[in-house]
């Protein structure tokens, strides 16, 4: 019931009933008319709080994703540097092993030549 209908009913009952019964009727009518208003207000405030909470959840999710991406970028650059250093050390090691192999080959040749000389010297 709207407030206008309640007022009209109260005035109508005022003319037909005694003052005591009107007092009881008006209290019950007033209580009844304010209940839907409170229910609508609680529904509105509940939906507002739910919307507010969902907005914060979405914003939190987006900020979390952004922070994870930034952390990933930092880690990725560190890993890139470490990988590049590892590749450089492997290249140096490969160069050194190649040089060592050549030295060993030259030393082997020298040993073979000296052994041939020694072999040829004996009668």
Which SSEs are present, and which pair or pack?
Layout: H1 3-16, H2 19-121
Helix pairs in contact: 1-2
Summarize the structure in words.
The protein is an all-alpha fold and 123 residues long. The protein has one domain. The chain has 2 helices and no strands. Helix 1 (3-16) packs antiparallel against helix 2. It is rod-shaped and about 125 Å long. The termini are far apart. Mean pLDDT is 77; it is low at 22-32.
Oligomer: single chain
**Total E-strand runs:** 0
Query: How many DSSP H or I helices?
Result: 2
* Order of secondary-structure elements: HH
The major pleated sheet works out as: none
| Low-confidence sequence ranges | 22-32
How many domain modules? Answer: 1
First-residue to last-residue Cα separation: 137 Å
Gross geometry: rod-shaped
What proportion of the residues is helical, as a percent range? over 70%
Indicate the structural class: mainly alpha
Kindly report the average pLDDT value.
Answer: 77
The radius of gyration computed from the alpha-carbon positions, rounded to a whole number of angstroms, is 48 Å
How much of the sequence is in beta strands? Answer: under 5%
């Amino acid at each position: 019931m709207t407030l206008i209908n309640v007022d009209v009913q109260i005035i109508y009952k005022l003319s037909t009933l005694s003052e005591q019964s009107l007092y009881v009727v008006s209290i019950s009518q007033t209580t009844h008319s304010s209940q839907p208003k409170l229910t609508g207000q609680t529904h509105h405030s509940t939906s507002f709080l739910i919307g507010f909470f969902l907005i914060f959840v979405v914003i939190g999710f987006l900020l979390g994703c952004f922070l994870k991406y930034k952390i990933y970028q930092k880690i990725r650059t560190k890993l890139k540097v470490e990988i590049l250093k590892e590749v450089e050390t492997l290249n140096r090691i490969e160069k050194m092993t190649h040089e060592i192999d050549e030295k060993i080959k030259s030393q082997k040749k020298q040993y073979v030549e000296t052994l041939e000389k020694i072999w040829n010297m004996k009668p």
